[in-house]
Amino acid sequence: MGSTDSKLNFRKAVIQLTTKTQAVEKLVQGAESGCHSEKEKQIVLNCSRLLTRVLPYIFEDPDWRGFFWSTVPGAGRGGQGEEDDEHARPLAESLLLAIADLLFCPDFTVQSHRRSTVDSAEDVHSLDSCEYIWEAGVGFAHSPQPNYIHDMNRMELLKLLLTCFSEAMYLPPAPESGSTNPWVQFFCSTENRHALPLFTSLLNTVCAYDPVGYGIPYNHLLFSDYREPLVEEAAQVLIVTLDHDSASSASPTVDGTTTGTAMDDADPPGPENLFVNYLSRIHREEDFQFILKGIARLLSNPLLQTYLPNSTKKIQFHQELLVLFWKLCDFNKKFLFFVLKSSDVLDILVPILFFLNDARADQSRVGLMHIGVFILLLLSGERNFGVRLNKPYSIRVPMDIPVFTGTHADLLIVVFHKIITSGHQRLQPLFDCLLTIVVNVSPYLKSLSMVTANKLLHLLEAFSTTWFLFSAAQNHHLVFFLLEVFNNIIQYQFDGNSNLVYAIIRKRSIFHQLANLPTDPPTIHKALQRRRRTPEPLSRTGSQEGTSMEGSRPAAPAEPGTLKTSLVATPGIDKLTEKSQVSEDGTLRSLEPEPQQSLEDGSPAKGEPSQAWREQRRPSTSSASGQWSPTPEWVLSWKSKLPLQTIMRLLQVLVPQVEKICIDKGLTDESEILRFLQHGTLVGLLPVPHPILIRKYQANSGTAMWFRTYMWGVIYLRNVDPPVWYDTDVKLFEIQRV
Predict the structure, then answer these.
(1) Distance (Å, rounded) from C-alpha 472 to C-alpha 469?
(2) DSSP assignment, residue 345?
(3) Helix and strand tally (H, E) in the chain?
(4) Segment holding 74, helix H or strand E
(5) pLDDT-based confidence at 305, cuts 50/70/90?
(6) Distance (Å, rounded) from C-alpha 373 to C-alpha 577?
């Protein structure tokens, strides 16, 4: 019986091997001949679909995984068809080059430029594919006529290409190895003569797409939009080709001289991955404008509200767009500076805040929450972002947040407050990031609304309760962050922030309680007992929710049974960021932590976390159950560093003045007190202003691995119907049901 089974398995293997090899050979032949006949075109499409279905099962089996990288006799690298194995080309390379050729095949995937219907095979090989770029935009001014058939053929080939790249899904996450995907590495190398036109085609196809249907209501119901599936596929292929660990290689950004070409001509030292290289070298303002406007238009699409329900088409690939925007900012610093140069950055900010607020209760969208926060952390490291936030917020996207009148800074803080107080438990690791963003922008915020001021004080009140402070080793960091926010605004933006000053005066008891935080064992024990009786992480009492915006709906949890993919852990804020000090001329100076430095803000700095943690954690103990428990020495070690001096001085000066006015004039009206505070001054009364500290995002292998798992998780879930990888044994993440 056993020998019969092994014979059957062997026969199956031989059939599989023959099928795969033949399918690749047919694609290679199609690319060689130029697919002139309808029959040839159909064969190419059938073979593409077959390989798209079969490849995941090959990748799933470790014994078969190397099959495509074995050499095929007769497929010479130089195209001479050498028979010896030394020059033979692996099947994977032949397949990838055939797909690249087919993506620029006249009358199959691009419009023919020739009047003659017959092209010789040499013409296919000698055509300059830069003249056949799919869409106008970066480096290409001509927009070809839309062609449904060409778009569908491109989509089939891109789906196959994405499936080739998906071998990464079948390998477990390994952050330290910095492993390169061999399929992506080869496709994005100089071996692919179509690398530049294909990169440009994908980028332009995504950024030029307008799903609204030329402004005609219900247009998307009358005409099927064949462009959207292609745009989705293009976005997914693009972000996978850009999967490159910028922390482990030379920076691809180039500060070369501006030339007349779309790509910076200065020869970059950057990565061998040509797609990353080309992305990092885009430098023309009109190209940046095209990319930014395109991404902002698509990200804003789910926010479009009209008086006619379902009258505008909603796109579904916003997560891929966020990854693309991240890659652009991370790999091309000129693009990042362009984004921040004008208030156009707010066209990216508002959709991100909308997604964050909408997804806060949905456990299947934790990845979306993370990438939105990461992008804002990256932007917040630049002064211009804080300055831009002062623009009044007037567009009123319906969101489940309290109504307020104010700026984009108010919107950001109100949404963050909502995430912290009413998001689900798995978002707690993001609290550090959210507050770091607020700290980074705080020195530049000219005027916060009363709603926002109350939200910040409510967060401090919630985070400074003894049960919260004593229940985890890092919880006190959140208090340090908030105190830093208040200090920055008082020292640098006092004049316009009477609302915040008034809120601090009203809630002054919080600061006095912090200054007198008990450190004796009975009180610590009592606080922890209360913790066990209070499962909720934060109290919402006192947050003064108010009415939500008109037309908004509450953030909903995921439907039971919703699929989600697991994510690797993200590095702590000390690994995600490095501290920089703002000099008087506005430039940033990186702060290299001293080896034995004790940390003033009670939070570990980059480069020396172990020392900082040893210092803070030595006095705390681990109980027999292995659970961390606080000690009086541990509380004292950070309580003594609470930056309360500026706030205490403000209270010392202003509280008696406010009380005197209230008694003298019999005031109970807030507006009168606010008017007094608006005209007040603390010049010469406060401590010398501290230097502004900015925590800038820094690339590291931990976030690179997180992005890889998140990106492939998104692609996996977006291709469940019809399924490409569903029910295969992927190793990069786990598939779970909510």
Answers:
(1) 7
(2) G
(3) 31, 9
(4) strand 71-76
(5) low
(6) 13
Give CA–CA dist 529/712, Å, rounded.
43
Cα end-to-end distance, the chain, whole Å: 44
CA–CA gap between residue 597 and residue 730 (Å, rounded): 44
Q: How far apart are CA 333 and CA 488, in angstroms?
A: 27
Q: What is the C-alpha separation between 579 and 439, in angstroms, rounded?
A: 12
H or E stretch covering 579: strand 577-582
Q: Residue 679 phi/psi, 5° resolution?
A: -95, 0
Q: How far apart are CA 443 and CA 195, in angstroms?
A: 44
pTM, two decimal places: 0.88
Give the DSSP letter of residue 719: T
Amino acid at 329: C
DSSP characters for 149-192?
HHHHHHHHHHHHHHHHHGGGGGS---TTTT---HHHHHHTSTT-
Cα angle 722-728-732, degrees, rounded to a multiple of 5: 110
Q: What is the DSSP letter of 213?
A: -
| HSE, side-chain direction, 13 A CA sphere, residue 728 | 27
Dist. CA 378–CA 210, nearest whole Å: 27
**Helix, strand, or coil (residue 639):** helix
In sequence order, the β-bridge partners of residue 723 are 720
What average pLDDT does this structure show over 193-209? 95
What pLDDT digit, counting tens, does each position of 552-569 carry? 778 888 888 889 999 988
CA distances from 372 to 203, 282, 357, 633 (A): 21, 24, 10, 38
* pLDDT mean across residues, the chain: 83
Q: Which amino acid is at 212?
A: V
Burial 591-630 (b: 16+ CB within 10 A, else e): bebeeeeebebbbbbbbbbebbeebbeeebeeeeeeeebb
d(CA 444, CA 359): 28
